[in-house]
Amino acid sequence: MDRLGLSKCVLAVLLTVAAALPAGAQMANIDYIGYAFETGGLLPSNAGDELTLVAVASNADPVFEVDLGAYELTFHAGGLISTGEVLDGSTTVIHYTGGMLEIYQDGSQDADWGLNPPNAVSPATFTDGELFFRGEFSSFTLYFAPGGYGTFEGTLSALDGTMIDGSCSDCVYTWAGAFLSGAGAQNPAGYDLQTDGGFQIDSTVATETASWGSVKALFSN
Amino acid sequence: MKTMMKGLLIVLAVAALPLGASAQQLFDFNGQAMMPSTAGGVLTMYSVMYDPAPIDSPIPLDFASYEFTLVVDGVTLVSDGISRVFSGGTVTIYQDAGTAADYTNPATFTDGTAILVGNFTSLSQFVPPFGPGSVSGYLDWVGGARLNDMAPEDQLHWAFLSGTSTTSGTLLPGYDEVWDGKTEPPSTIVDTEAASMGSIKALFR
């Protein structure tokens, strides 16, 4: 490769990296509230039990361009398989394997948890509409404090959905929240946890159109 | 004996009413907290409330015309560790149509009308070794312009739950944690309904 060819190659790599980076680190959040249930109940969480969580967005960052007055964003996290609970001091820790998170944008606004899930309306009314996001969990862990409350957090790899087109290619997707078990708070019959949390995208940027000249100008100084 | 049967019937009817999805009620909030670094320090949290639809607010709130903020203040850290214990403190919900809430100016969260004022009866925070934390406790509503929108028995023992994060990208300068949570009554609050004696008697025929 001659000197000019090598320079072109380096420039191409630089352009690729520059295009993938956001203009500035950003975090976009969708706030949700919902309920979760696990086969066989929770606690205990036995190896092989499956956790399902269904939720509705109560607020979304404007970057997502979703009018929650006209559409609902519904969440369905399923296929999360417990590896069994482990006691770490006074904390009960449950790691899960597998699992997918789906978010739907739906003008029918029909989300209904119903009772004793799975049932005729749940998860069905959380999985109708247009697929907004689908991701595969790379990790998911639930921490139970002694008082019947706790937290959970999972990381995701994005697969598809209309939202991904408007986001950066190397985003970090996080699904996290707090939960309270049934005692002391409203919980529809058959659900084990009530949850409140956020779906977050790190370094989200909107797509920008730029002329070739303006891109070259970035490297002219 | 007939009276006893009616009493039993009322109990059975109440017990048979399942808690349906439409019966869920809560106040939803998302905010920023300043945490005490040592025991004896005070926790303060400012937040904006959102319409929790399709879940109902425990009392109707006009989100289209007003901004609602929820402020936690005066909560004292008693002991630190993986489970932090707090004491005292208040929760106040403000209704404001004037100044938009701005985290660089906390006074924008405490202007307007205090519609509900509550006292924490307990509050603790779980801080696991990894991931976000969680705050849980209970409160009693004791004041505010809309306190009487709830019957006295509905004002007590509300659950307070929030996720907490020190690493969230939404954490703002000057604050220590992002809080994302809700508070809710122990059972569904129902509005008063006018009914004739005949229609009430018909319920038991």
Would you kindly provide a written description of the structure presented here, covering whatever features stand out?
The complex is a heterodimer of chains A (221) and B (205). Chain A is mainly β and 221 residues long. Chain A is built from two helices and nine strands, in the order αβββββββββα. In chain A, a hairpin with a 2-residue loop joins β3 and β4. The N terminus of chain B is likely disordered. In chain B, 10% of the residues lie in helices and 40% in strands. Chain B is mainly β and 205 residues long. Chain B has one domain. Chain B is globular. The interface between A and B is large, with 51 and 49 residues.
Main attributes of the structure:
heterodimer, A: 221 residues, mainly beta, 2 helices, disordered N terminus, B: 9-stranded antiparallel β-sheet, 10% helix, globular
How is this fold's topology laid out?
The complex is a heterodimer of chains A (221) and B (205).
Chain A: H1 3-20, E1 27-38, E2 50-60, E3 72-88, E4 91-97, E5 100-106, E6 130-144, E7 149-160, E8 172-181, E9 193-202, H2 212-217
Antiparallel strand pairs in A: 1-2, 1-9, 2-3, 3-4, 3-5, 4-6, 5-6, 6-7, 7-8, 8-9
Chain B: H1 2-16, E1 27-34, E2 42-50, E3 67-79, E4 83-87, E5 90-96, E6 113-126, E7 133-143, E8 158-165, E9 177-184, H2 197-202
Antiparallel strand pairs in B: 1-2, 1-9, 2-3, 3-4, 3-5, 4-6, 5-6, 6-7, 7-8, 8-9
